[in-house]
Amino acid sequence: MNLYQQLIKDYNQELTHSGVNGERLASRLEELSVIGLMVSGGVTRPGYSAEEKEAKELVIKWMKNAGLTVTSDGAGNVFGRLAGKTEGPSIASGSHVDSVPNGGHFDGPLGVLSALEVAESWKETGYIPEKPYEVVIFSDEEGSRFKSSLTGSRAFMGQLRPEELDSLRDENGKSFRDVLNEYGSSAEECLKAGENRPEIETFVEVHIEQGKVLERENQPVGVVKGIAGPASLEVTFTGEAGHAGNTPMAGRKDPLVAASLFVAAIENFPKQVSDTAVATVGKLNVHPNGFNVIAQKVILTVDIRDIFEESRDQLLDQIKTNAVKIAEERSIGVQMKLNAKIKPLPINESLQAGIAESLGKFNINPVYIPSGAGHDTMIVGTEMPAAMLFVRSRDGISHNPQEWTSLNDCVYGVHVLKDFVEGLMKKQ
């Protein structure tokens, strides 16, 4: 059974109305799903790969058939524009079509196709939007190829730097500059993406939740109240290596014990600063990593996030202080390096209220959810109003072939997006 058949099996046909067509959305999700399809059932479409480009070209064909005028920039971002009754800045919506290795079929494509379905609905009903409308595909959101995410949106916002392009290499050692040349652009054109960008009044992104809140609340669509900004802290504890059998317990300077105490303490800190803060140690390297050797050194990385910058930074400081305290108590060394620190994006409350109003029209109770994952919206929103809708994810699974959102929920997301965008169009 292909993706279309799975999606359509339990679809409520009454949701196809007002020009929004669930079968069309399911068919397009299916067509995208076979680009980069793996035997596991997942999909691999790295940023700036032939597969990502093929997916964009397919969506471009649909954009043109829907009457959109299509352009692209030096970062490979795609813009499908529909003229409105008035000229000026557009209301824009979209997401990405690249994926993580062996990823799912909804993360990214659902946002792009939902935005396109709004334009299709207007075409079917003869509706002319009050303002210009744009469907956007950002390049390389996941960052799986170069371990540097949100590339397209950062280029669009003028936030890419030449030194970053010089340093990036994929797992085959190919430079980002070379990859851009093969893709049909260049590093120079990529860096210019923000110079002549389309003028956007408000950007709205539809995305699967990648969590279980909506499932727990039994609601198909929710309101994103903020996008967490990550801080990545690398901590190195250094002790004294020794033989596991010949070194007495008394007086040992074991950095792995220190690291264990440090990791165990971390789970208590987030709730002290914010109910939306999180901190995670998911990577730890022990040197020399012998079963009968007291470690010499332990290197670990702490991922620290919150939707509020002040509390995120407060949490970061607490974790740093605790690392120093543990090292001093155990007479070992500690070094810390901040590898990344990205500003969180609280979503404007008036935009949240507008989405909640649209939800109410479809008898959906508004659920307000913080996004722990990064999205293109958090980059675009640094300089312009931006909002997000989450659509329910089964079991909260994402970045995995088992990623699933029902067609009913997908179509509810389109209806809410359509109503919200039409409301934005009417505002002066």
Question: Would you write up a description of this structure?
Answer:
This protein is an alpha/beta fold and 428 residues long. It folds into 2 domains: 3-227 and 344-426, 3-Layer(aba) Sandwich (Aminopeptidase), CATH 3.40.630; 229-341, Alpha-Beta Plaits. It has helices at residues 3-9, 22-33, 50-65, 109-125, 151-156, 162-167, 176-183, 187-191, 213-217, 255-266, 270-273, 309-329, 349-360, 376-380, 407-426; strands at 69-72, 78-82, 90-96, 133-138, 200-208, 221-227, 229-238, 242-243, 278-287, 293-294, 297-306, 333-341, 345-346, 368-371, 386-391. Strands 1, 2, 3, 4, 5, 6, 13, 14 and 15 form a 9-stranded mixed β-sheet that branches. Strand 3 (90-96), helix 4 (109-125) and strand 4 form a beta-alpha-beta unit. The longest helix is centred in the last third of the chain and has 21 residues, at 309-329. The mean pLDDT is 94. Its cofactor is Zn(2+). This is Allantoate deiminase. Residues 229-328 form the Peptidase M20 dimerisation domain. Zn(2+) 1 binds at residues 96, 107, 207.
Label this structure with key terms.
Aminopeptidase, 15 strands, alpha/beta, 2 domains, 22% strand, 428 residues, Alpha-Beta Plaits, globular, 9-stranded mixed sheet
Strand runs, count = 15
Helix/strand class: alpha/beta
Determine and state the CATH class of the largest domain: Alpha Beta
N-end to C-end Cα span: 48 Å
Largest sheet geometry: 9 strands, mixed
Q: Rg from C-alpha positions?
A: 24 Å
The CATH topology assignment of the largest domain is Aminopeptidase
Helix proportion: 25-40%
Poorly predicted runs are: none
- Beta-strand content: 15-25%
Multimeric organization? single chain
The gross shape turns out to be: globular
At CATH level 2, the architecture of the largest domain is 3-Layer(aba) Sandwich
Task: Give the helix tally.
Answer: 15
How would you state the average pLDDT, rounded? 94
